[in-house]
Amino acid sequence: MTDSGGKTGHPRARTVTVAEDFAGQRVDNFLARELRGVPRSRIYRILRRGEVRVNRGRVRPGHRLEAGDLVRIPPLRLATPGNDALPPALSRRLTDAVIYEDQRLLVMDKPAGVAVHGGSGLSHGVIEALRKLRTDCHSLELVHRLDRETSGCLMIAKKRSELRALHELLRNGAMEKRYLALLARRLPEDLVVVDTPLRVVRRNGERFAEVAADGRPAHTEFRRLQNFRHATLVEVLLGTGRTHQIRAHAASIGNPVAGDERYGDAGANKRFAQGGLRRLFLHAHALRFERPHNGEDFQVSAPLPDDLREVLDSLKL
After folding, report:
1. Which residues face 122 on adjacent strands?
2. pLDDT value at position 102?
3. Contact residues for 106 (Cβ-Cβ < 8 A; gap 6+)
4. Within 13 Å of residue 225, how many CA atoms lie on the same side as its CB?
5. CA-CA distance, 303 to 311, in Å (whole number)?
6. Residue 24: which of 68, 67, 57 has the closest Cα?
7. Is 102 labeled as catalytic in the residue annotation?
8. If I label 298, which of 26, 84, 167, 237 is the partner at 20 to 30 A Cα–Cα?
């Protein structure tokens, strides 16, 4: 890494050489790591203005870096610790949430209500917080995402090679991802398979997944575990990983996920709230795949959180 330009005593632009481990990374994510404490909105702004250069050329946020690329990073004032400090409560929650870790991979039982990424008024998501907590880790990247109100297994790669390998498994459908969900009505069959394509649209600035013939292929299996008077606990097996796939597919068969304010039924949600449900009843409870680097059959699971168990207990009564 070399510095260049600027006057003595003033911040100067610096040039960073992309290491092999970061080959294939988007430039906006690379900058987020190099400029810890700088909001993503500002990172996108300096990219739009051309203040960031890769091999002396302007690039878009989604530009993929290659080993040996030279990235010019302009001088920016980082947030002061007092303004962008990690809240102690969030630090404790995420530290306690780690359920598996080795030199290549970290898996946490993500708490509901915590976004995986900062933004939209949030200073810290899971990944920003972990990068502050785990300064010993050279690389931390989300392997996949969970909605803010969804709890459960979330994978974070600690090496770029692991990230690329796990993304390949996801693309090839070689990773088993299972969820637990409470549907707002009784499911009449033991197994319901939904294969309707989905596309993502924006409404009032929010993303929605909708069934569309020209959408991307999406496969979801709903397996009945327990029927209640007006609801069904199901295990959900995903064959693809589209945005809001479980929620959109559940709504498409007339049986939305309980507590879903975007795709759900307001009357049913009110009834579930009276039984103690305070959020979306969706939990990523298990992952299984073959580890790319050693062929190990890797399995990890996260138990249903206490708040959701209490809702099930109220339904039994």
Report:
1. 119
2. 94
3. 98, 100, 130, 140, 155, 156, 157, 158
4. 13
5. 15
6. 67
7. no
8. 26
| Cβ neighbours around 280 below 10 Å, total | 26
**Positions of the chain with pLDDT lower than 70, given as ranges:** 1-11, 37, 77-84, 119-123
Question: pLDDT tens digits for 146-197?
Answer: 999 999 999 999 988 899 899 999 989 899 999 999 999 999 899 999 999 9
CA dihedral of residues 49, 54, 56, 57 (deg, nearest 10)? -60
For residue range 195-220, list pLDDT tens digits in order.
999 999 988 878 899 999 999 999 99
* The model scores a pTM over 0.85: no
Q: C-alpha angle 111/115/117, rounded to 5°?
A: 135
- Supply the pLDDT for residue 2: 43
CA distances from 187 to 87, 98, 267, 279 (A): 42, 34, 18, 21
Q: Are 59 and 70 in contact (CB under 8 A)?
A: no
Cα-Cα-Cα-Cα dihedral sign, residues 238, 239, 241, 242 = negative
Residue 51 phi/psi, 5-degree rounding, is -75, -20
Catalytic-role residue among 109, 147, 260, 265: 147
Round to whole Å and give the CA distance between 302 and 281. Answer: 15
pLDDT of residue 3: 45
Of 154, 124, 158, 157, nearest to 138 by C-alpha is 158
**Rounded CA separation 24/67 (Å):** 8
SS3 300: strand
Q: What is the pLDDT of residue 121?
A: 53
- What is the C-alpha to C-alpha distance for residues 27 and 16, in angstroms, rounded to an integer? 12
